[in-house]
Amino acid sequence: MTLPDHAATGGDVPGLDHGPRPAGVPSSGHASRLGDMTFPEAEATAAAGAVLAVPVGSTEQHGPHLPLSTDADLADALCRRLAEERADVVVAPVLAYGASGEHAGFAGTLSIGTEALATLLIELGRSAGETFGRMLIVSAHGGNAEAVARAASKLRAESRDVMAWTPRWTGDAHAGFVETSLQLALDGARVRTERAAAGATEPLDELMPVLRTGGVRAVSGNGVLGDPAGATEAEGKRVLDDLTAGLLAVVARWAGPATTGAPS
Ligand SMILES: [Zn+2]
To answer: Residue 22 Cα, ligand 1 centroid: separation in angstroms?
Structure first.
């Protein structure tokens, strides 16, 4: 485990650590979370040019072996990793509800749908814009794509500096080898390895016509699209590193080099 958990980052309250940096500007190398800040700290961080990163996931079934928070966990982890590399990134509380209608019929799935998610992100972006000059949406659930795109284009049309990014990988789509490896890397104790089993392993293109009309339930009884066999923590770390590098590159192109950080 190289990722800090909540306990590990809990001591890194910006402005309370020692050193010459201005209050509210987090030290480099530690993720900073908006929820940990006071309002003057948020104000100082924003004034120094901070980017607000909003992790967006889902609460939806991920087979019999992965927790319902899998997408939210990934979005949050990617934002934290970004903030560890860029001192100008502040991570907003994770939005753990998304558009997961395709997983209806599996217990525990909580979906707010595309309309509500788009509206939520638009209002969140307007509100965030009162503090932060830039907002980054990191959505780790494919079903959120339409809502995220709609919200981002609306906010941009309102002259707000908003970017959306979604992790993409090659390999199986849902609760299979890739997502199981990722969750093993994020928090292996939460994976019910003994329950992992293959689901529908046909390519997504082939499944799509039935998926569109009947949802995941119609193609996979256990909710898995892929096969978790052979998933490892090491593979998950490799994919996480790849995704983090991709996110860092995209943010660097969009926002330039980090504008705040520990003075040298
Ligand atoms: Zn997922």
So the answer is: 39
Contacts of 165 by beta carbon, 8 Å cutoff, 6+ apart: 136, 137, 138, 139, 247, 250, 251
Note residues around ion ligand 1 (Cβ under 5 angstroms).
70-71
Strand partners, 62: 66
* Residue 178 Cα to ligand 1 middle (Å): 10
What is the maximal distance between C-alpha atoms in the chain? 60
Q: What does the pLDDT read at residue 258? A: 84
Q: Can you list the domains of the chain with their CATH numbers?
A: 6-170+245-254 (3.40.50.10310)
Give me the residues of the chain with pLDDT under 70, please.
1-31, 260-264
The rounded Å distance from CA 215 to ligand 1 centre is 15
d(CA 86, CA 257): 8
> What's the whole-model pTM score?
0.87
Contact 233, 188 (CB under 8 A): yes
Predicted local confidence at residue 1, as pLDDT: 36
Using the mean position of ligand 1's atoms as its centre, give its distance from the Cα of residue 135 in Å.
23
H/E run at residue 194: none
Q: How far is the CA of 205 from the centre of ligand 1 (A)?
A: 18
* Assigned token pair, 30: 């530690």
Residue type, 78: L
Q: What is the pLDDT of residue 31?
A: 64
